[in-house]
Write a structure and sequence with these properties.
Shape: globular
Distance between the termini: 36 Å
Radius of gyration: 19 Å
Order of helices and strands: HHHHHHH
Number of strands: 0
Largest sheet: none
Helix content: 55-70%
Number of domains: 2
Strand content: under 5%
Number of helices: 7
């Protein structure tokens, strides 16, 4: 019971980093992103480690790798939009998606290097099957990164919201201080943005208009 409670507190602390960063910087995060960080940490630490989920479900680790890689591609697209403050780029959106994919794979590779370092120099056993573990993790990262980059492309181009790309659109809309030139999805063109579609695929509200599910900046 105590180890489980400790893990839950650690997961809550990780999720709390986003609201703390909001209080310090004024950068706003969608509430579902905070919830997603908490749930992901729980599934990785509580179910995976404490409840032996990695042993009971051999594919669980691969699923987490794929999900995290998809999320990192979304982060990568957000970073790719920063130089133009979310405004139309001088290149096609698919090129930004390639950069987002590359960012995700870079972080995944750095994680595998960390695991190797822990095993090689500190006596851990994170890469249980050695090369097989590394390669299957990398393949899972590849699948997740491709999906995340494609989802980010659909979000930025057409206003579509395949999970977790909707978080990117909400984040961009809520932070005109860093995405002040954002005028909505681009319609696949480097020129004028399109108006998007109705329903769940509708484009973002006008820039600077914060959504109600955002963490306040004060």
């Amino acid at each position: 019971m105590l180890p489980a409670l400790g893990i839950i507190l650690v997961c809550a602390a990780l999720a709390a980093l986003l609201p703390i960063f909001t209080a310090v910087s004024g950068i706003r995060f969608p509430r579902r992103l905070v919830a997603g960080v908490f749930v992901f940490a729980l599934t990785a630490l509580l179910f995976g480690e404490v409840a032996d989920g990695y042993e009971k479900l051999p594919w669980w680790d691969l699923l987490l790798h794929a999900v995290s890689a998809a999320a990192l591609s979304i982060v990568g697209m957000g970073l790719a939009l920063l130089p133009t403050a979310g405004g139309r780029a001088r290149t096609a959106v698919w090129m930004l998606a390639v950069l987002a994919f590359g960012f995700s794979m870079m972080v995944g590779t750095m994680w595998e290097i960390l695991e190797f370092t822990l095993d090689r120099f500190f006596g851990f056993n994170t890469q249980v099957d050695g090369h097989m573990d590394t390669m299957t993790d990398t393949i899972a990262n590849l699948v997740g990164a491709v999906y995340g980059a494609a989802a980010a492309h659909l979000a930025v181009t057409f206003g579509r919201r395949p999970p977790p790309a909707g978080v990117l659109l909400d984040f961009v809309a809520a932070n005109p201080v860093i995405f002040g030139a954002w005028q909505g999805p681009s319609g696949g063109l480097r020129g004028e943005p399109c108006s998007g579609e109705a329903g769940t695929d509708r484009p973002l509200e006008r820039r600077g208009q914060a959504r109600s599910d955002m963490i306040p900046g004060e």
